Amino acid sequence: MKKYRLEIIIFLVNAVYMILELVASRVLSPYFGSSNIVWTSVIGIILLSSSIGNYLGGKIADKGQANKNIKLILSISGIMILVLPLIQKSILSIISSAIGDSRIGAIIGTILLFFLPSMFIGFLSPIIIKAKLNNLEKAGEISGIIYAISTFGGIVGTFLGGFFLLPAFGSTITLFILSIVLFTLVFFVEGFKFSKKKYIIINVILIAINIAMIILYSNINKINSKLIEEGDTNAVLEYDTQYGKVRIYNVDTNNGKIRAMEIDKGNESATYTDLDKRNELVFDYTKYYDLMFENGKEIKDTLMIGGAGYSYPKYFISKYLDKNMDVVEIDEKVTELAKKHFYLNESDRLNLITEDGRTYLNKNTKKYDAILNDAFSGNSPAEILTTIEAAEKVHNSLNEDGVYLTNIISSVDGKNSKFIKAEINTLKQVFKNVYAVPCNYKNDNETVQNIMVIATDSQMKLENEVKVNIPENEIILTDDRCPVDNLIPIID
Question: Does domain 5-221 have CATH number 1.10.3100?
Answer without folding.
Answer: no
